[in-house]
Design a protein that fits this description.
Blueprint: H1 9-47, H2 50-70
């Protein structure tokens, strides 16, 4: 069984154009999302780099030592 639908070329063109535009829009949204994910990934890597880790550890140690020294009465 075959069903034939006759449509003017202009309608076929418009339908095809609309589908292509939707696919392009989807692709652009995916690219934007990938860019955002890349930026987030970079920030996470920077936040957890070994160098950054040791800088934070040293800062915390210094702050803890300063707080500890406040507990002594040094006159």
């Amino acid at each position: 069984m075959k069903i034939l639908i006759e449509m003017p070329d202009q309608e076929v063109y418009e339908i095809g154009r609309k589908v292509v535009q939707e696919k392009i829009q989807e692709y652009l949204e995916i690219l934007k999302l990938e860019k955002v994910l890349d930026e987030i990934s970079k920030e996470i890597k920077d936040a957890f780099s070994e160098e950054n880790y040791w800088e934070k550890v040293e800062k915390i140690r210094e702050e803890a030592w300063q707080e500890y020294k406040k507990g002594f009465d040094l006159k």
